Amino acid sequence: MPYIVALTGGIASGKTTIANLFAQLGVPIIDADMIARQVVKPDTPAYQHIVAHFGQHIVLPSRELNRAKLRNIIFNCPEQRLWLNQYLHPIIQSETQQQIMQFHTPYVIWVVPLLIENQWHKYADRILIIETSQQVQLERLQKRDKIDKNLAKNMISSQITSEDRRRYADDIIINDDQTADLSQQVTQLHKQYLKLSQKII
User: Topology of 3-198 in CATH?
Assistant: First the structure.
C-alpha cells in the first residue's frame, strides 16, 4: 500500500489546483469528491436510499441527483446534512481504501475536503493543508458555484476553522491570489514525500 498524503483545506481554498500540480508530477490523485459522485450514480443503492429520504424533487430529468437543490437543503438544515454525511461517509471511505490499494506508486495524494471533520486523518500518513483567506474563499465560492453570499457563508461556516485545521498539519501551502510559487512548493513537497515513502518500504 502506498504512502498516503491527505490533502485538505477549507472549501474553495484551491485544493484542486494543488492536486493538479501533483498530478503533473505523475502522482496518483484519489479525490473523495469524485468518489462521492460515483457512489450516488442513478440506480446505485446509495442513490436509491438518498432519493427515498429526500424525495423525487431532488432528481433531475436525467435521473442524476440535483446537486444544487440538495446543497441548498443540507446547508440550510444541519440535521439533514448530518443524516447525509453519516450515511455516505462510510461508503465513500470504503471505496477510497479500495482505490488506494490498487496503486503501487511510492505515494498517493488523497484529496479530502472534510478530512478533520470526519476524523479521517487517522487513515493518512501525512497531512497537507491548503489555506487561503476567508475573503478569497467567499469570492471564489460565489463565483465557482454561482451562489449568493449567505449560502457561501453557510458553506464555509459548516467546516472547522483554519486555526483548528492547522493543528493537524504536517505541511501547509498558502494558496491566495498573490502566491506565485505554487509549482515550486509542490515540487519541493514531492521530493520530501518520495523520501518519506521510502522509509516505510
Answer: Rossmann fold (3.40.50)
